[in-house]
Write a structure and sequence with these properties.
heterodimer, A: mainly alpha, ABC transporter involved in vitamin B12 uptake, BtuC, 14 helices, B: alpha/beta, Rossmann fold, 2 domains, six-stranded mixed beta sheet, four-stranded antiparallel beta sheet, globular
């Protein structure tokens, strides 16, 4: 039985890793101009090479990073709140990052570390607010989601308010609100990439802590975990992953919800297995959605968020109706 | 004489803003089962949470094998005292992985489990009789078996003191009796086994020592027989608790 489960995990992680490589290759090749994979190695056509280097490569990297970041952020938030319906898009973490980006641009910075940092701070404030309110009021799982929806709505109003007062800053556009990768550049991507990679590596090494935290505060403390410090650390990591992703991808919804739930079905809830597969699965899912967004109505392109929502919304409804509430036992 | 493994001296603490424990002193001895009993709201759960440091104490001192627990880190306390809360969130983990987390306090970052940790886990699962469920998901098991998984996780901590908050709640009579017998064999290994119990006859039958809490104060303590004979139980619980001789020894019942 044990061997069987180990084999299943090895198979799932191998398939998702191979899927990521395939999605990345597809992503650099498809679009308004088709590039053959062979050209990437020979560099035969200088125009194609420039398209690859300055458009497709940053875009593919952005898809992979945003997918990994938002999915892992969702898995962490679900673990910390012990709520499989929580995700950065639903409880206002992405919206907090959106406020951070909008405010930063209103003050004159449009790319680089300032935008990524502001997105992180915005995400951190909103996730801490929701988690703290849930903890202090002993809120039920559904109350946490409803509270998060309210926070989401409030923060969206703040962003729209800022953009109404400062329309010239050109952020929080329809594309940003839906989420997409059409305007990704190296200067936007590199600071966020550094933040996402560091946060992912750190999260992978803290899988035991996340498992223990998901057993509830009293059990966790009884096992020797410093609950408050660890919870804050995980929420900061989740905010870092979601904030950095939102800074270049916009408000991509559902990826942080559906990928962790799908992966749990495949490999179970053990964080040591869940987090790496979530990262790879999220990266593959977002990259494939972006390929579809560029190809479905080529030469026209639709925002990636639309494709993801078209897939994500039905799944979310399915999840809602299958959810049987909590599984606390005394 | 049995060694005192955990003691509280004049401990007071607050819960949800009001004083829930007032000047409580108690000794938990190795090799003995201690039952903590009292009416609802008497501070039983708060007492256990204060001993483990989940609820901060306002006054008094707690000693683990003679050492003051003030200033001890969470992992150090966990290596000395295992705690099973009343309300538990059942995780989406296999039984073996969950019991393995009992070794958490023995490892430092980034927590790579060693051979001795694996051996401790196998021993703990064997002791409570759940080895056959090792690869099952905990959330798929019955309430009684889940309780045993939590107990195995506490055993894997390899601490000398085990605190359990209402371990028999939600268990049928057969699981309750099995659990109390298991507590007896853990005490026989020299551990101080302490449980908050609601079932007074069960506590009188299986516990060596009893601490009675009422209104946040320790109103009686001693051996089960001493506490029964003092008559305090009738006053505290507003019920008549009686004993009767049976083939298997003295049994207790409420009227």
């Amino acid at each position: 039985m044990k061997i069987h489960k180990k084999k299943t995990y090895a198979l799932v992680i191998s398939i998702t890793a191979a899927g990521c490589v395939f999605a990345a290759l597809l992503s650099v090749c498809v679009g308004a101009v088709r590039i053959s994979p062979l050209e990437l190695f020979t560099g035969a056509d200088p125009v194609h090479w420039r398209i690859f280097r300055y458009a497709r490569l940053p875009r593919t990297a952005a898809c992979l990073l945003a997918g990994a970041g938002l999915s892992t952020s969702g898995a962490i938030i679900q673990g910390v709140l012990a709520n499989r319906l929580a995700s950065p898009g639903i409880i206002g973490v992405n919206a907090g990052a959106g406020v951070g980006v909008t405010l930063c641009c209103a003050f004159g910075a449009v790319s680089g570390w300032a935008v990524s940092g502001s997105a992180f701070l915005g995400a951190l404030v909103s996730v801490l607010a929701v988690a703290l309110a849930a903890q202090k009021t002993y809120a039920s799982r559904s109350a946490v989601i409803l509270g998060g929806v309210a926070v989401n709505s409030f923060l969206t109003a703040v962003s729209v308010g800022i953009i109404t007062l400062y329309p010239e800053i050109g952020v929080y556009t329809a594309d940003f609100r839906t989420g997409g990768f059409s305007g990704v550049t190296d200067s936007k991507l590199i600071p966020a990439a550094v933040m996402i990679i560091i946060a992912l590596l750190l999260a992978f090494t803290l899988s035991s802590e996340l498992d223990i935290l998901s057993m509830g505060e009293d059990t966790a403390q009884g096992l020797g975990l410093s609950v408050k410090k660890t919870r804050t650390l995980f929420l900061a990591l989740a905010a870092l992953l979601a904030g950095a992703s939102v800074s270049f991808s916009g408000l991509l919804g559902f990826v942080g919800l559906i990928v962790p739930n799908m992966v749990k079905k495949l490999v179970g809830g053990e964080s040591r297995k869940l987090l790496p597969v979530c990262s790879l699965g999220g990266a593959m899912f977002v990259t494939l959605c972006d390929c579809a967004a560029r190809s479905l109505f080529s030469p026209y392109e639709i925002p990636t968020g639309i494709v993801m929502s078209a897939v994500g919304a039905p799944f979310f409804i399915f999840l809602l109706f299958r959810s049987k509430g909590g599984h606390s036992r005394g | 004489m049995d060694k005192i493994l955990l003691s509280a001296k004049n401990v007071s603490s607050c819960y949800s803003g009001r004083e829930a424990l007032h000047n409580v002193s108690a000794e938990l001895k190795g090799g003995r089962i201690t039952a903590i009993i009292g009416p609802n709201g008497s501070g039983k759960s708060t007492f256990l949470k204060t001993l483990i440091g989940i609820v901060p104490k306002k006054e008094g001192e707690i000693f683990s094998e003679g050492r003051n627990t003030d200033g001890m880190s969470a992992p150090e306390i966990a290596r000395r005292i295992a705690y099973l809360p009343q309300m538990k969130s059942v995780p989406d983990l296999t039984v073996r992985t969950m019991v393995l987390h009992g070794r958490f306090s023995h490892l430092s970052y980034p927590r790579r489990y060693r051979k001795e940790d694996m051996e401790a886990v196998e021993r703990a699962m064997e002791t409570v009789g759940i080895s056959e469920y090792a690869e099952k998901n905990v959330s798929s098991l019955s309430g009684g078996t889940v309780q045993l998984v939590f107990l195995a996780m506490a055993l894997a901590q390899n601490s000398s003191v085990i605190l359990m908050d209402e371990p028999t709640s939600f268990l049928d009579i057969s699981h309750q009796l099995n659990l109390m017998k298991l507590c007896g064999s853990l005490a026989a290994e020299g551990k101080a086994v302490t449980a908050v119990l609601h079932d007074i006859p069960l506590a009188l039958k299986y516990a060596d020592d009893i601490i009675v809490l009422s209104g946040g104060k320790a109103v009686a303590s001693g051996t089960a027989s001493q506490v029964y004979k003092s008559g305090i139980l009738n006053a505290v619980f507003n019920a008549e608790i009686k004993e009767a001789a049976s083939e298997s020894g003295i049994i207790y019942y409420c009227q």
